[in-house]
Specification:
heterodimer; A: mainly alpha; about 70% helix; B: alpha+beta; Alpha-Beta Plaits; 3 helices; 6 strands
Amino acid sequence: MFRAHWWAAVAAVTRQVGDLEVAEDAVQDACAAALAQWPAEGLPASPRGWLIGTARHKALDRLRRDRRRADKEAEAMREEAEAMREEAGAMGGAAGAMGGAAAARAASGWAAGTDDELALIFTCCHPALDPAARVALTLRSVCGLSTAEIAAGFCVPEATMAQRLVRAKRKIRQAGIAFRVPGPGDLPARLGAVLRVVYLVFTEGHLATGGGALIRGDLCDQAIRLARALAALLPGEPEVLGLLALLLLTDARREARLSPAGDPVLLAEQDRSRWDAALVAEGEALVERALRGNRPGPYQIQAAIAACHSGAATAADTDWREIALLYGELIACEPSPMAEANRAVAVAMSEGPAAGLVILDTVAGDARLARWPQLHIARAELLRRLGRRAEAVAAYRAAIALDPPAPERAYLARRMREW
Amino acid sequence: MVKYMFLLYADKPLPEPGTDEARQLFQAWNAATSEMAEAGVLIDCGPLQPQAVSTTVRVRDGEALITDGPAAEIKEVFGGFTLVDCADLDEALKWAARVPTASEGKVEVRPVIQVRAPAERPAG
């Protein structure tokens, strides 16, 4: 019940007391106090305002205890006086942010009263922090996940995750990473780092198979929550909308990705009637809205590709020509051998296996693809369609030798049997 | 405000004085540090003599052990430093990127721990 307020509360208290670690501990304590107090005394008029106010007092108490020098004491008094003056504003601001998707939409630039929340996520995703730490810190400080939950999600021991979080928070304090929204000049690069973190949280949850499936599903939900919040905070940034669309369109397939036996199912073989129609519709509308901004980027293009799949009633109806074009655009703004390989497959589907194979063989030697079984599977399929049996068998074997994930393994076994 | 030390790691030793390369490097360095001085962030800066000139001191059991050469053998050349006073890391990183060494070698940005002079500490 506190997760809805966590981000805003940690953000407001961090600004008020100037230390993320202290603020986060204080919000944690305030939540515990609420758990004890609210059932007996009833819900406060503004739960969020109560949490922020209580946490601020706890944080300032701790800072005061920590400070032994008299001049620091004076600073705390000054901060408290300032915080008191800001209290009215913070409460009003919190209420505004809650009811305020409308307010956010009305503002073309920064939405009023939400700067703290943006400042918090930009701080957690600062490029001076280790990339893995950015993901962990965002889940802890912005999403309110416990250290144990994050550790389970990333399959690392809890002590390792705790250490990673402590180190990141210490670096923010000691290196002087500012708690603020970056200026316009820095925004594109810094926003890119934030979106990357949200995307990584999602893929960690999405690609996971096997143990801890519940927690992994929670990571997908958290990523979508973050993307939704960012889209409300930055409605004029097409890549934010593109990322949200990509996550929704991918998540729409969640139910269909597993067979009744619990095994992952490849995209072409999924039962499309089990795709979540509401998520698909929302994702498709977002892609359109984003692309109207005429500032395409990698997330918008990937979302457009996902929309091509979701718009096809059956796998055979897929508009591969359009997908091939979109992969071409994706490569133009972010070259990668993996995107090139995907383009080759789309070209093969629309123009025939020979045309696809020519493209695929241009990237087949790339070292970054050497350990990617999907490349060999794609080559094997094209060679098979061309009747080049010996080469196809060699490619299937190369894929199997790379110990591919379960769905690909099952597919390969079936393909070899069919021959 | 936070003091940041820029540690300048070059890919190769500083050019010989008097060469064109040295003059160009000096001009680029001068341009960057002048900007920092005008912005009021520069505290001090300077290139260092080559590592062959350095001497390392260790005190063990009250005895000073003096050895010729650098403290650590590394591939990069630690060739100079810049000390600035900035509002936060973002500002420091912007200035660090202006140092010519950043374009060829690397610049490590490290915050300086604020220590008061003994006289400033309250008694007791």
